[in-house]
Specification:
Blueprint: H1 3-21, E1 32-36, E2 47-52, E3 58-62, E4 67-71, E5 74-79, E6 88-90, E7 96-100, E8 103-108, E9 118-123, E10 136-141, E11 147-151, E12 154-155, E13 161-162, E14 166-168, E15 175-179, E16 185-190, E17 197-200, E18 206-210, E19 220-223, H2 244-249, H3 252-258, E20 264-265, E21 275-280, E22 294-298, E23 303-312, E24 315-325, E25 331-336, E26 342-347, E27 359-366, E28 374-379, E29 383-388, E30 403-408, E31 420-425, E32 429-432, E33 438-442, E34 449-454, E35 470-475
Length: 479
């Protein structure tokens, strides 16, 4: 066993110990269950890339450089020798794109024997300095056929430009990038820290998640747009309008004014620490009542949470709410298959996770039972409207069963932010709809706050309680 493998084995053992002492938060809506997939024996199957084909085939990339296919309950190895891939896409022609650290690679099976014959570099136009934290995430495909990926900043890299815990030695670290089908590379957006998840919505819009840390108050979800700045100053080193000296002179207020607001703040620990890729339920009801909503896994919390977005004054904002907790390992990749099953790729990597296992693959399935849960949350002129999946018991809809608070976060080079200006909000009025599936609450609102509604006292007409009772709404704009 070489030194690298010894280190990985030690990490796996330590992660197992960490997982055994952490209390796994288990919550699951009625009608859903988590199924564990048996992975290849004697393989450290850290799933860091995941996609599914229309025929139900599942393709995964592992952190240790392999690509596997799972079809009709059988595993076959498709490729190996890759450098810590952290993303995978089945392309329209059946070839497989893999985001490995130094490049974006197309894997082609020319003789149709089930094994990749060609490893073709599509692009490697960024710089990779062999720092362990210089991940390459993605890709996703745009409506016009381009590929979009995101590049992680380095950590503790010698001589890297840094203003906190993360740094860059140049070459578009902390940027999103675009690659055409012909392999032409161009920088796309900047100011990213650890953008571990990227996804394309059914409408073709791009979103990414970023992990809490320096210059990132708590984990967040953004709409990804070309030539926009997302808050971390270090990637500006590759922008033609900036130098090190100019960046160092920028105040926190100036940087805050430059950056894009997130579509959703993701409260630390309460929802997520290290979110992965956004995935949309396009199953047309095969996965339950949450049609069109976004689902994201978290590597640390070993959970899946939902994101419910709306546009207010032309800008996305909305709510995050936990969905299922209690997975076996850290959830970093998610994908819905054609049958409406949500596949979840897992790794504890080296950071640990609530789930006690170091790696794995699971899926979430629905048996048709209607769950009693918060369906969505919408902003009104006077507060919010909470919609549920089943009629509420009118006896439970009293104001003492609803608690509301707000806060904001402090943007700085410090590692994350505690909640700032935490304040309870008094409910002026609550109104139950005629069908008893919705509650409107009138409360005083202030822009640029996160508003948490705790509805733990509510029950349904059938006397069921929701599995999750706290929802967090990012309030960028008021109506």
């Amino acid at each position: 066993m070489n030194a690298y493998n010894k280190i990985l084995t030690a990490l796996s053992l330590s992660l197992a110990l960490v997982g055994s002492v952490n209390a796994v938060q288990k919550y699951i809506p009625d009608g859903y269950k988590i199924e564990t997939i048996e992975t290849p024996k004697n393989v450290r199957f850290h799933v860091t890339g995941l996609d599914t084909a229309p025929n139900g085939e599942v393709v995964v990339a592992t952190r240790l450089g392999e690509v596997w296919k799972f079809y009709q309950n059988k595993w076959t190895k498709f490729a190996d020798g890759l450098h810590e891939p952290t993303g995978l896409l089945i392309d329209d022609d059946g070839s497989i794109l893999v985001a490995q650290k130094p490049e974006l690679t197309r894997l082609i099976d020319k003789n149709n024997d089930g094994v990749a014959d060609e490893y073709v570099q599509l692009s490697g136009a960024w710089n990779f300095h062999d720092n362990y934290h210089e991940f390459n995430f993605g890709p996703v495909k745009t409506n016009n056929g381009d590929y979009i990926g995101t590049l992680n900043l380095s950590h503790n890299a010698p001589k890297a430009f840094s203003m906190g815990t993360m740094g860059s030695s140049g070459g578009y670290r902390g940027w999103a990038y675009k690659v055409t089908p012909q392999g032409e590379f161009s920088p796309f957006a900047y100011g990213l820290r650890s953008p571990a998840g990227i996804g394309a919505s059914p409408q073709g819009e791009l979103f990414f998640t970023d992990n809490q840390g320096d210059w990132v108050e708590t984990s967040k979800l953004h709409l990804l747009e070309e030539n926009k700045f997302y808050g971390h100053p270090i990637p500006l080193i590759d922008h033609p309008d900036f130098t090190r000296e100019k960046i160092l002179k920028l105040s926190e207020d100036e940087l805050n004014e430059m950056r894009e607001k997130p579509a959703a703040w993701i409260p630390h620990v309460e929802v997520a620490n290290s979110p992965g890729n956004p995935e949309w339920d396009t199953s047309e009801g095969k996965f339950g009542p949450f049609k069109g909503q976004m689902f994201i896994g978290d590597q640390t919390q070993s959970n899946i949470f939902r994101v419910i977005l709306e546009k207010v004054k032309g800008q996305y904002q909305g709510a995050v709410i936990n969905f299922i907790g209690g997975f076996q390992s850290g959830n970093i990749r998610a994908d819905f298959d054609s049958s409406g099953q949500l596949w979840v790729g897992q790794t504890a990597r080296g950071w640990g996770s609530q789930g006690g296992k170091p790696f794995g693959l699971e899926k979430v399935v629905w048996d048709g039972t209607n769950p009693f849960e918060l369906l969505d949350m919408k902003l009104t002129k006077n507060g919010f409207k909470l919609n549920f999946t089943e009629a509420l018991s009118s006896k439970s809809v009293i104001e003492k069963h609803l608690k509301v608070s707000e806060w904001n976060y402090l943007y700085s080079g410090a590692y994350g932010s505690a909640k700032q200006n935490v304040k309870s909000l008094n409910i002026a009025k609550s109104t139950l709809s005629k069908d008893k599936k919705s509650i409107e609450i009138d409360i005083p609102l202030t822009a640029d706050k996160v508003v948490m509604v705790d509805f733990a006292g509510l029950v349904s007409q059938s006397n069921r309680k929701p599995s999750v009772t706290k929802v967090y709404y990012t309030l960028n704009n008021l109506l």
